[in-house]
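Posting for a labmate who doesn't have an account.
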Amino acid sequence: MKISLPPHGRSNRVYPPAAPSLHGLASVITGVVVVCGLYFGRAVLIPITLSVLLSFLLAPLVQMLRRLHMGQLPSIFIAVLFALAALLAVGALIGAQLVQLAGDLPQYQVAIERKIETVQEKTIGRADSLMSRAAATLQRVAPSKPPPRPTGRAARNAPAVPTPVEVHEPSPTPLQLAQRALSPAIAPIETTFIVLVVTIFILLQREDLRDRLISLFGSRDLHRTTTAINDAAVRLSRYFVAQLGVNLSAGGVIAIGLAIIGVPGALLFGVIAALLRFVPYIGIWIAAILAVFLAAAIQPQWTMAVYTLILFIVVDVVAGQIAEPLLYGHRSGLSPLAVVVAAIFWSWLWGPVGLVLSTPLTLCVVTLGRYADRLNFLTVLLGDQPALTPAQNFYQRLLADDPHEAIVQAERLLREMSLIDYYDTVALEGLKLARNDAMRGVLMPDQLTRVNEALVDIVENLEIADGLPDRLIRAESPEALLAASSADLSERHDSPTRAHSSAHSDSEKPAVLCVPGRGAFDEVTTAIAVQLLGRLGFAPIMATHSGYRSAHADEPSYKSAPIICIVTLDAPESPPYLRNMLRRTREWRPRAAVVVGVGGTAENRHETSVGATAASHSAPTFRAMIEECQVAASSLHTRQHSHVAGGAD
């Protein structure tokens, strides 16, 4: 055997492409650089971020002033002056409340000391007494000898006791006192000034900034980029305004309630609650803990603390379950876990300001991720939209061998849709996913058996399920058609014999023979079709694939069915066995109406052939199959009644 070697310096080994790894490494490096930039540039980024969010809040006010035929510049300055007045009022209120609370604290010193002593006695005191008893017991068991005192030369060489020395600083000058008094207020005043100036320029150049963003992110697709930016701006602006209104209302109610209860600093806690409520789920409870601790400390009893806690619970429930759903729906756009993680992340980056801004900032990122492909993973990770579609969730529960969860999901979805719609949009799509995996050979035989058993359990549990009314668009139910035909015949013929014969024929339900295909999930698909046909007034008969072929349609139950439904997920592909079934069915039952489904798409519903064999009807969904059965049943009864009427004439 001759072995050929590659030329010197070359190799036949094929190396995998390094592009994915380099792309992932570049993404990680980019993320690290962005986080470092946010951390080290917080002194510049915090005012800019506050300006952007303030512009979202003031944009509706500016637009309202513009509708009143005011110019752009006056509208912006009026809105900014309004925001400045609100900020100054809140700052003055917080300062006054802090001064008043600090001045009133000595009055509650005795109650605070008693509460601290009580807490120490109940916790640390008991532990200290237990430790003292344990130490005394150990000392009695193993007494220790006192250390010997130094004598003689050792006593003379002992170090002398040091003399205490006190250091007194010189009294500060008036300039130093003024600097100490004004330095804490300089930084907030500076930040407020920068925020207002940047906000004015953002509102003045709003359209220009929008055009620049369009040019930066998607000048090639102007329609998509413009829609994304406008939708994000409008949605965020409405959300922030609505949330600000809810938070201010909740803070006002809390302040009034705390004042009625008698908690000092009620307005301060109301402002804190309104600000911290921008952090959903946990923000208001931070303010509640502070207020409850203060109420418990200043009163010898615990009634004030209990009333304070009840007030916060009632306000949070009313605001979260009634006010917010009415204004902007139940969803904020973020999952609860994302809210908590975002609060931790932004508070680590920017401190208390980051904690308050965590939800608005994360919501902005998630909203942009819906339109920017590179940020779409943030929408999947942090958004509150389901990660899987209902059909994918249905199939995933089957793979996890958890039919109970699939039944719970079905009961939840049936509150908003009918059973036919659930089977078409959820179960059928999930069955297609399962069929694809079975065709690829990734489902093992035992797993395939478990999935089919779970499907049977789901279908049996949905036998008595109640969803919205099953509304079909092609024809009425067979009973309605029979009743209409019976009424028409009774009006035309007054003979009691004919009327009795017509009523007897109308009471009989049309029989439908349902035959499954040869696919892995065709039997359970046929069971679904049988269930739906039975719920809508038909008399379905379920056969097996092998039984139908061996009986050659000679069974009495097979011969009595005027409608035959061949149910298979393989219908779109039209495999050879399906074409053979159709050909044999045409040979055995030439006068029967044949319906073939399901598993196709809406485009191939009106095709009149499957492969080379003609079929009466083709239905891609369960709804289409039942509608075709209704059309076939109405045609059948029309022919029967016409024959009866012709014989009577």
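Reply:
Got it, the structure tokens are right above this. The chain is about 70% helix and 5% strand.
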